[in-house]
Design brief:
- The structure is a single chain.
- With about 80 residues, the protein is mainly beta.
- Helices cover about 10% and strands about 40% of the residues.
- It is built from one helix and five strands, in the order H-E-E-E-E-E.
- It has a five-stranded mixed barrel.
- Strand 2 and strand 3 form a beta hairpin.
- The longest helix has 9 residues.
- It is globular, with a radius of gyration of 12 Å.
């Protein structure tokens, strides 16, 4: 399900942190590893089948449990 601006504004109003930028550096199925804006590498997970990523994708993610990043969106690919 796509997140609409109404849903995003509700999340922001509820105190949810905005999604952070990241780069996928390893991908295997719905799991992978990304580099966050601070340069740290984090294990990541696509919470639904609608979100699919491959190595090199720029993504938006939110912190999840157990130090895992939840990928909420994949930026359009270029090149």
């Amino acid at each position: 399900m796509k997140r609409t601006s109404r849903q995003s504004s509700k999340a922001a109003a509820a105190g949810a942190a905005p999604a952070l930028p990241g780069l996928i550096v390893a991908a295997y199925g719905r799991r992978g590893e990304l580099t966050g804006p601070d340069g740290r590498r984090l294990p990541c997970l696509a919470p639904s089948r609608a979100v699919r990523f491959v190595c090199g994708d720029r993504v938006r993610w939110e912190p999840g449990g157990d130090g895992e990043a939840l990928v909420v969106a994949v930026e359009p690919r270029q090149g």
